[in-house]
Amino acid sequence: MKITSAVLLFAGLTTAAPTDEGKACPPPAHLKYHITNFSAAKGHMSGYCRYEFDVAGPRMATPKPAHCTAYVDAGFSGATWLALVWNGTCDNDAVKWTFSDPVDPSGDALFQVSINNITGNYTVPAKDITVWLNDEPNPFDNDVAYTGPKEFYITEF
């Protein structure tokens, strides 16, 4: 009886084991990250962009949302677009994020949030980035801001 139980247990474990070693399992369908208080802007006559938001989601050690900020040099992209953020940080070490400009100036941007190495993608429509030309001959005298929803869910993984 003990041998039969051991064989059945072993058979069950081997069939439940993943077949692709080293590959992460896809996230569950119900997984989503809740973004609140999202803002991103380049101020008047500034070459810097400020990002700020809160994120909550499963797999966080605490139910408290993580608070994320960045203040980054926009370089030449700051004239007409928000700055690139690579490896943005939060007050929770499990959370990292990026904000990427579109390849095509009229295209959409990409906002990515990773919680414990599971990355979700949110496409920021170009229409949600507004540029105000204060002085057309001086492209750096522009205000650029995210004007889309302040609260949204990331559901694409």
3D architecture notes:
Keywords: Signal. Residues 1-16 form the signal peptide. The protein has one domain. It contains one helix and ten strands; from the N terminus they run αββββββββββ. Strands 1, 2, 3, 4, 5, 6, 7, 8, 9 and 10 form a ten-stranded antiparallel β-sheet that branches. It has 157 residues and is mainly β. The model is unreliable at 4-20 (pLDDT under 50). It is 10% helix and 42% strand.
Quick description:
This protein has one helix and ten strands, in the order H-E-E-E-E-E-E-E-E-E-E. The protein is 10% helix and 42% strand.
Key attributes of the depicted protein:
157 residues; ten-stranded antiparallel β-sheet; mainly beta; 10% helix; 10 strands; signal; 1 helix; single chain
Beta-strand content estimate: 35-45%
Number of helices: 1
Q: Which assembly state applies to the chains in this document?
A: single chain
Shape: elongated
Q: What does the average pLDDT come to?
A: 82
**Poorly predicted tracts of residues:** 4-20
Radius of gyration: 21 Å
Number of domains: 1
- The secondary-structure element order is HEEEEEEEEEE
Per DSSP E runs of 2 or more residues, the count of β-strands stands at 10
Main beta sheet: strand number and arrangement?
Answer: 10 strands, antiparallel
Class by alpha and beta content: mainly beta
Helix content: under 10%
| Euclidean distance between termini CA atoms | 46 Å
Keywords: Signal
Signal peptide: 1-16
